[in-house]
Write a structure and sequence with these properties.
The chain has 65 residues and is an all-alpha fold. It contains 2 helices and no strands.
Length: 65
Amino acid sequence: MSDVETLKAQVKKLNSQANNLKMNLHDLAEDLPIGWDKIPELAQQTFETYKNLAEARAKLAEAGG
């Protein structure tokens, strides 16, 4: 597998994870105040995943993919 293909696969995986976390945050918000104590952990996971996704997309663009 080439570097570009590896990066594309990574972006695809991170994008899926990010979307799932986004939906989890949305669901959590809809159920408030139930589960309010889960906000910091879920928000941190979501932040880190989107940060990693942005970095992977930048690497892919840099690699010409």
